[in-house]
């Protein structure tokens, strides 16, 4: 079941092996038994230590490699996932690009995996253990990237099998059985035991189908289910019960154990009745492959969205705190990995901030620099008045026709050193005057202003007040407003009975917040402190007015966003690309995400039913604090309803 050649893999100690996680039916990513028996003597201990050192060195190499290629892995994963989402329609160019993206992705997966591993899934569990012991560094970003890559690989392979592409189904099912769910599970809720049992059953069926001639049930049991002894192939079909239970037992609920026992007896009964191909065909009919793959495909899609949410939350924490969440390497090692373990690219398409891209100074070109203040542009002197022209000629001591031809910063005599606008790097001593003196003669600002005013051809006019700004709805004709299209025909939308009434939501929110504040201010009967001494509630901070223009969300745009969240499963980049023109005011992905969070806070505070797709809208720490302050449950889900459809679990 391992998929790794035991003879080619060094013997690994228990601390280096990735054992089965809770709820997992897999026996781990490493070999469960050695290829040969080892005697307990000193030579074997020395050999084990050498093997452990070799394994540690191999994982150190993998750690260095994955930290360097982490951005490439994230980009390749996003590209292939985007190609999978856009279904192949027979276009040759699209198919060729898909094959190129798929090949690049699989080459990265192969390069980043353990050298002796035959599995196409990245064993990030062993990598995490090595990183914590040898580096002392948080590997959250690496785990998210590896987990996303494993999920995308499974999604891609399943899509190929469903489309009847030439794929080695048996190899894929064996690899999936080995990795499921501990290398694919992002939620960690141990709800995938039933799927793991179905996958293990498919491994059993496909192994029998791949055997030439009459299927050897005992050999299939020994190789797939796992007998206690490698040389014991005499197990009868009735022994399937004990073997399945001995491997699948994880200490979970009695119902799960009963499901495993029932499946094992079902397999045993089929082969007890008939051991030929009729039994095999009956198993294939009872346990079809493609419906199972569809279910696994849906499960992997949900787990991938959880990884996306975790990546977005990590990026927001980096932006809020101004630093990466990864710790620095210990013992002064790993300086070359700090760039790789810093803020990583997002798993969704985000705009590049040009403000952080800075051009390094070039010290080889010139040693002199120009100060920020410069002479006025003299090439457009024909546009100025006669008085201004005369003043400029007097101040500069030359005519405008010749001054405009000189280079900027060059003095009248052509000497750069005599001009105060330049300075040398080495001339910053104590004798250098930091202030420039006005050496112009007869410089009288009042006289200059009077001369310019007298020569102006236009009479002085009083400042006229600008007309008051009209509301956008009245100042802009309705014909000039951008057309906001409705959802295209055939797309699913929220039923009218389930559409939230935003006005009622806001009213209920304010009422619940008022009750929560009243409870906070109410005197405690067990306290002896009088009511008059109670401290008043903290007032809201008043921030200075900003010049940034804010466009409030209308109820129509908010309702449209609720529909699109249900339609596109809260994929902000898809909403921006496909439906951005439908909104009254153009916005970006961050605006959609912020508005969705604010609406989810309103729904939670108002005890309203969460619309479809809002489980995918993650709340930040500030939003959770706001919901908790209203004495409401910030972790309520869409399915938290009673038999009448009313929300439950609303309070903390």
UniProtKB/TrEMBL annotation:
Residues 37-49, 310-319 have a biased composition (Acidic residues). Residues 413-427, 636-645 have a biased composition (Basic and acidic residues). Residues 18-35, 464-480 have a biased composition (Low complexity). Residues 1-49, 310-332, 400-440, 452-501, 517-555, 630-652 are annotated as: Disordered. This is Myb-like domain-containing protein. It comes from Claviceps aff. purpurea.
């Amino acid at each position: 079941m391992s998929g790794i050649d035991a003879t080619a893999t060094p013997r690994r100690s228990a601390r280096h092996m990735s054992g089965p996680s809770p709820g997992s039916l897999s026996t781990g990513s490493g070999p469960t038994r050695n290829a040969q028996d080892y005697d307990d003597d000193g030579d074997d201990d020395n050999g084990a230590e050498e093997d452990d050192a070799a394994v540690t060195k191999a994982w150190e190499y993998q750690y260095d490699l994955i930290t360097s290629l982490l951005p490439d892995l994230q980009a390749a994963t996003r590209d292939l996932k985007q190609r999978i989402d856009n279904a192949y329609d027979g276009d040759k160019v699209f198919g060729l690009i898909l094959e190129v993206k798929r090949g690049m992705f699989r080459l990265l997966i192969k390069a980043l995996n353990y050298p002796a591993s035959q599995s196409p899934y990245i064993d990030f569990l062993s990598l995490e253990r090595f990183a914590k012991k040898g580096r002392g560094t948080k590997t959250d970003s690496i785990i998210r990237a590896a987990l996303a890559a494993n999920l995308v690989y499974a999604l891609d392979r399943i899509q190929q099998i469903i489309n009847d592409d030439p794929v080695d189904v048996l190899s894929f099912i064996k690899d999936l059985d080995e990795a499921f769910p501990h290398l694919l599970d992002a939620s960690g809720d141990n709800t995938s035991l039933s799927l793991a049992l179905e996958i293990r059953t498919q491994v059993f069926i496909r192994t029998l189908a791949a055997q030439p001639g009459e299927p050897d049930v005992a050999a299939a049991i020994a190789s797939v289910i796992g007998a206690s002894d490698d040389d014991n192939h005499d197990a009868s079909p009735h022994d399937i019960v004990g073997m399945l239970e001995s491997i699948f037992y994880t200490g979970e609920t009695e119902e799960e154990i009963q499901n495993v026992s029932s499946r094992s007896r079902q397999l045993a009964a089929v082969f007890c009745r008939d051991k030929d191909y009729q039994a095999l065909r009956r198993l294939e009919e009872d346990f079809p492959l493609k419906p199972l793959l569809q279910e696994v495909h849906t499960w992997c899609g949900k787990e991938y969205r959880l990884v996306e949410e975790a990546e977005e939350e990590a990026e927001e924490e980096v932006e809020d705190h101004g630093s990466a969440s990864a710790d620095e390497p210990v013992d002064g090692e790993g300086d070359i990995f700090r760039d790789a373990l810093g803020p990583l690219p997002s798993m969704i398409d985000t705009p590049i901030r040009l403000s952080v891209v800075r051009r390094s100074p070039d010290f080889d070109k010139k040693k002199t620099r120009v100060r920020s203040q410069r002479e006025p542009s003299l090439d457009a002197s024909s546009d100025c008045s006669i008085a201004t022209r005369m003043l400029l000629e007097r101040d500069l001591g030359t005519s405008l026709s010749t001054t405009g031809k000189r280079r900027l910063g060059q003095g009248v005599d052509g000497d750069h050193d005599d001009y105060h606008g330049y300075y040398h790097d080495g001339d910053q001593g104590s004798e250098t005057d930091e202030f420039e003196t006005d050496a112009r003669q007869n410089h009288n600002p009042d006289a200059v202003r009077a001369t310019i005013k007298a020569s102006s051809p236009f009479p002085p006019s009083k400042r006229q007040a600008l007309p008051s700004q009209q509301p956008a709805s009245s100042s802009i004709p309705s014909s000039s407003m951008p057309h906001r299209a409705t959802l295209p025909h055939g797309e699913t939308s929220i039923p009218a009975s389930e559409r939230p009434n935003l006005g009622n939501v806001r009213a209920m929110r304010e009422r619940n917040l008022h009750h929560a504040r009243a409870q906070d201010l109410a005197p405690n009967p067990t306290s002896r402190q009088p009511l008059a001494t109670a401290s008043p509630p903290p007032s809201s901070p008043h921030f200075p007015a900003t010049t940034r223009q804010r466009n409030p969300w209308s109820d129509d745009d908010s309702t449209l966003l609720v529909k699109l969240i249900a339609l596109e499963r809260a994929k902000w980049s898809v909403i921006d690309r496909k439906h951005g023109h439908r909104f009254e005011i153009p916005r970006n992905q961050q605006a959609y995400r912020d508005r969705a969070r604010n609406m989810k806070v309103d729904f939670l505070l108002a005890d309203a039913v969460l619309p479809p797709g809002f489980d995918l809208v993650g709340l930040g720490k500030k939003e959770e604090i706001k919901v908790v302050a209203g004495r409401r449950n910030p972790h309520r889900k869409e399915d938290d309803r009673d038999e009448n459809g009313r929300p439950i679990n609303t309070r903390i």
